[in-house]
Here is the input.
Amino acid sequence: MFRSRILHICLQLCLLALSARAAQGGSSIDILLRNPVTSSANISLLVQDLQSGEVIDAFRSTNVAPPASVMKLLPTATALETLGADYRFSTYIEYSGQITGGVLHGDLYVRGTGDPTLGSQKVGDRNLLNAWVRAIREAGIREIRGSVIADLSYFDADAINPGWIWEDIGNYYAPGIYALSYMDNTMNVILRSGPVGSIAEVQYTVPEVPGVQFDNHIRCTTITHDGAYVHGAAYNYTRYLTGSVPCNQGSFGVQGDLPNPGLLLVQHFSKKLEDSGITITAEPTYISEADGVNRTLLYTWQSPPLSEIIMETNIHSNNMYAESLFRTFGSRYSLPCTIHNSADFEKDYWLRRGVNTRSTRIVDGCGLAPQDAISAETLVQLLTYMYRSSNSNAFYASLPVSGQTGTLRSLLPGTPLDGKVHAKSGTIAATKNFAGYIELPDGRTWVFAVMVSFGNGKSKQIQKVIGDYLLDLYNTKGK
Here is the structure.
């Protein structure tokens, strides 16, 4: 213990010396400190040799900063370590009452446990309802004298993270998170764009959502991009449409979240059952809390393996997938899963494994919450741990590659670092972060985190400066 404390003190002194030297100039970090786009920004930075532990570069590495989507490294790593790369989420079809003579005298339940892939356009089987209908028919059921019920009780009713801001809530990238997800929890609102100054006309939604209504204030203007927002609360079927879209464009799609994806799932399931000849006497519905009714398990549906889910999460920075993973951690403390328990579990789990999360603030799993905060040092410790983990291959494969895949496609293409950086990016207004690994020509690997928030420019401009910094550091110290 004493030796470990001495090593920690030595490392901190080394970091302080590097930060002091950086502040005086004469190193690669001058690129960040002297560029007008990043010179006044909040920077937390650490680059370390993975094999030797040598600190290659550092600047305020223990200071916390908003992680944005770099936050996804925490839930994806936690899920791999606690569940395993081959883990599959289960969704259970259960029934109450009795089956006699082909008639179910009771209700059919679809009970979720957080699988984000049900009906997803990203990962999994979009034809899952056909398999579910087959299972019901194979059970001998030809009539349901009851309802098909979505059981959402595995998560609590706090579907919208209270740390998210109004600008985000209800948009496709910030959907409600439920124990039963469906179709990426997303609907596409199809508008008709007209003359400048007119209100865009709502035509229909894909998928069709029974009961949804729109309070529409989207104006057609001379902008050339999608400037529209969809706002709304969980379980509420009124969606507020604001902002603007290009004028005279004909049909124009704006994505928002589904008010209750679990209910839509059982509505579609009921329709499939009826189309197959199975009659149902009551309308589909949902429960958000356990009803205490005795049930019998009829069928279990399993998701693709976790390795595929985290690959979608990190490579394409899928917020809904990240939040679904994050919310499941709360089950380690109690049911229903809560956001608070999930955050506590994640923080405590890594602290017990030598990753300093004491100053880390965890509000969500995807990094949308502006209250999220983490340091470059903590990220480097997490990445170092995962590199040596038995799940390292799945974790490494889930990271975008510079110049080639996902959210790193635009980072350093055509440079010596093209294809050499495997990292997660994070982007919000005036903020750009990267954390991951850099492969060196001699077989060594650097583990790094560069966090730049509140810069004097757009995130694309900040990324350019960070890319220049990484390339300079690679050319001067990596060859």
In short: The first strand starts at residue 42 and ends at 49.
